[in-house]
Amino acid sequence: SAAAWLNPLFRIGYKRRLEEDDMYKVLPEDGSERLGEELQSLWDHEVQKAAKDLRPPKLAKVLIKCYWKPYAVLGIFTLIEEVIKVIQPVFLGKLIQYFEKYDPDNMDALYEAFGYAAGVCLSTLILAVTHHLYFFHVQRTGMKMRVAMCHMIYKKALCLSSAAMGKTTTGQIVNLLSNDVNKFDEVTIFLHFLWVGPLQAAAVLGLLWVEIGPSCLAGMAVLVILMPTQTMFGRLFSKFRSKTAALTDNRIRTMNEVVSGIRIIKMYAWEKPFSALVNEVRRKEISKIMSSSYLRGLNMASFFAASKIIVFITFTVYVLLGNTISASRVFVTVSLYSAVRLTVTLFFPSAVEKLSETRISVRRIKTFLLLDEIVKSNHGFLQEEKQEPSVEIQDLICYWDKVNVQLLSPVPPSHFPQSSLLSSILGELPHDKGVLKVKGQLTYASQQPWVFPGTIRSNILFGKELHPQKYEKVLRACALKRDMELLPDGDLTLIGDRGATLSGGQKARVNLARAVYQDADIYLLDDPLSAVDAEVGRHLFEQCICGILKNKPRILVTHQLQYLQAANQILVLKEVTHALPFEESRSEGTIGVGLYVKYLKAGANILVLIGVVLLQFLAQAAYILQDWWLAYWAGEQEKLNVNGTVTVQNGVNVTEELSLDLYLGIYAGLTGATLIFGFARSLLMFNVLVKAAQSLHNRMFNSILRTPVRFFDINPIGRVLNRFSKDIGQLDAALPWTFVDFIQIFLQIIGVVAVAASVIPWILIPLVPLVIVFLFLRRYFLQTSRDVKRLESTTRSPVFSHLSSSLQGLWTIRAFRAEERFQNTFDTYQDLHSESWFLFLVTSRWFAVRLDGMCAVFVTITAFGCLLLRDQVEAGSVGLALSYAVTLMGMFQWGVRQSAEVENMMTSVERVVEYTELESEAPWETQKRPPPEWPSQGLITFDRVSFSYSSDGPVVLKDMKAMFRPKEKVGIVGRTGAGKSSLVSALFRLAEPEGRIYIDGVLTSEIGLHDLRQKMSIIPQDPVLFTGTMRKNLDPFSQHTDEDLWNALQEVQLKSVVEELPNKMETVLAESGSNFSVGQRQLVCLARAVLRKNRILIIDEATANVDPRTDELIQKTIRDKFRECTVLTIAHRLNTIIDSDRILVLDAGQIHAYDEPHTLLQNHDGIFFKMVQQTGRQEAVALLQSAKQAYNSRSRPSTTNGGVGADGNLVIFETAL
């Protein structure tokens, strides 16, 4: 029942958009867990056996063992199909013979001819059915293999050891899941042709021998020569592919960093070196893609030309051997060749090529599956010992990748991330010597808070069931009660990708709540207080760490050692940007002609495009004429044979013969033309399309670099990267090929219909309803198919995002023993994807069966039409029309499928084009360049500045007036959301502020962004290092000497650390500098600022999460190195800014107070005084003391103008303030 059960689905799909609930449930035998475990057990078995036999384990062997039986059965379908393909031309030949020997009175011959015609039609029908049954089943097998592999890869990822994580990157693992496993889907389709191909070739050879004798060997020889050339193409192609893949990985990694660090790149004005970096990689990648596209083009052209060359050579040899040609011979030969040609030149080499590709992928997956796993230590209690849970450590030495760090006390020095102590307790860090005993169930709250996509409640429960009282208690202890009330859906609010909905502090508290809720024996808390402000920190410490948990052993790593007695933590949370994660827009509707024009025009100008169109038509015309000439020749020959004209010349009887030179010459000429036009059109098309991909990528990249930061707040990184990986990948590889293929096939189909119509003009009448039915079917199908395709891609992304978020929270997942649960979630996502993939397979088969059915109708009409009009047609024309009509099978549905593919892929173009047209920020350079040594003093003036991140967003700074004098050190404080970071954003023009900001009298909004941003140094909130050498990180423009760089490093006390790296400055850092601790990264940022020697330095919340030593170091460097500079510090810990020259207190975007610290502290109702009081008694006394001391030690200048003679209006400000 040609998949009739799908009809209701299509009906729904035609009426409205399909949603996930419309999909059929996955069959139990296709379930991810079941398939994965089955393969996993075989693999484990193989690994053990291999270890015994001292050989490397073979993954391929395991795969074959698991899947060969059901797959082998499918070979029968292939066999039937290929047998029919060989028999059909024989029927065709008999039918044409009837026309050659046409005798109106011979009724027996007519009935026989009707029988043959029926044979031709039946074989087309049977072909239609078996072909699709076969395809459906093999693709399903492929799907099973892929799903099982993914399950295993994910399972493995969850138990990687830290050393292994160093050998692989998140990108690489995602790549295994996105690209490598897809090879299984492809390889299963072609494998059977490895044995069917040679068999079929032998059968055809036999039939041809009977038909035209030894001449057939010439044609077969060409086929045999073509095969290795195609295989060679395939080889070369995969060589290019692997080179391209390495470059693509590289480009996407760089893009990942650019997008994640875009804020910093913008603030440093580093767009140029990064764009140079990406463009360089992209250039190499495009040149490889161009080469592989030309290969593809040659391959496709040779595929079209192959049949022509084969037939040409066969008949040239046949005629030269003195035989005369006849229509039935010509067309049986042509049909037989075309039957075998596909298998031999396409399927067989494809099978070889896919097999080699799959072997590479299997090897890559195997390498991954053999990486080191973490040693599972069991921290449970034994039944007998009911003693206290404890952690015991003596002389522990641990290695991260064998860098020796001794750890004797739980209060390590600055350059040693304390987290390592916790990691070793968690068992993430293998220890070399020493004792580490852990008794009891562990739980862990990481320093970089980790949340996974889902509701807040699911993040806290983390797989435990909900006990309302306990849950409430935990929420209260973790100070989440109020936050939940403010969020739209309370604790059922969805957290976006990477926790986009929550602020840093909220994430940290969710992280803590998760740990507390787990009810374990030992709590490892890695600086959970660092991201929250003073009040909350105090609350957490008292209510949670010393409250709910008071009877449990807990290890708290924190940087505020000096306040621990006072249980106290002074930090201010950064602002909350309210960005709700919105759904990836699934673009709907069809794609306009305008888009195709845009796409093609990106690749070439109008004249070239017109040339391309002409070439296409010329090539197709030559293609048909070549076949027509053979038919014409056979017809002329026929006339001679019938009339048998004998002329008398010079008294000698001469039988008239056709001039061989003329006929053969024209035939050769046409063949040559077909070849030349065919190759030219292919290569030209590819050239245009790859150029289009190149120019679109460049435009998109430039547009992304120039768009305001706001864009990146709204769009999750994944979505932006998707444009650069998936969509550009489509434009590079898949789209050009599909596009060219579609155009060639479309022209072929038109050719077939034209030929049939020229023989039997009447055929156009039944053709009209067929075309109407076809158009209806296509629209009907495409609507559903597009939705299924869309569902397929939207159900695919959770699989990836689950993988990457699991990799980010690996430690947390393991500490909570939640691997099982995450594995199950992964399986559920996989099953959801399998549902849509299965639908995709079935719907495409549903459509293809119906299309092939229509082709069978067309063949039937043609065949019986010829018999009904037997008086008016010639044998040659019948042969031409029928042999062409038969080729429609398969080709027609493939063409339609390709047209749908092109349309689907054009959505990638649409998405890329959408990103090439983003709004851009102000120009990097303007006509108005500031003087070269500007700013020489560092006077910053805010004149009625208002600021909001987007035109419709809330105003975060309101009508602000302030002046920062040269060389002044100003601390900026305020509660969460007071607008501290916004002040920086306004200064850097990350969004355009209203009002005026002057620096040394230059209006900042008039100069180019680069001119402005390069002149201010910033130490950002989250220090970012980029992958690349240490030198590139400090000085991407290569403007400084080595000496300068070493000096800068020495000043921030990193010299020794860098000298210990294997290649010193040239050491390539791990993915985004993860081999440095947060404090060290901060120091690298400070070194960048030291190198820049700017007059203005801004420190944004840079002191969160840093231990006191680093902190002191940063403060000291700032006092020494930046004595001559204006320094603005956005502070959290008051002790760092209590001795500033002045303190600016912000409240709700307005200036609450702005004066010297000591003066501010006299006002007991002020916000600042209250903030000092909140730090606890001891600390408050110390703060008051240092403020007073600083106040007294200061030399007071005359307060008129801070010693700056500038425009008068500044004086007015002074008094206004």
From TrEMBL:
Q: How does it sit in the membrane?
A: Multi-pass membrane protein
Determine the domain of life of the protein's source: Eukaryota
Q: Which Pfam families match?
A: ABC_membrane, ABC_tran
What EC identifiers does the entry list? Answer: 5.6.1.6, 7.6.2.2, 7.6.2.3
Q: Where is the ABC transmembrane type-1 domain positioned along the sequence?
A: 72-356, 610-904
Q: Which GO terms describe its molecular function?
A: ABC-type glutathione S-conjugate transporter activity; ABC-type xenobiotic transporter activity; ATP binding; ATP hydrolysis activity; intracellularly ATP-gated chloride channel activity
What is the protein name given in its UniProt record? Cystic fibrosis transmembrane conductance regulator
The scientific name of the source species is: Oncorhynchus kisutch
Lineage of this protein's species?
Eukaryota, Metazoa, Chordata, Craniata, Vertebrata
Q: Write the gene name.
A: ABCC4
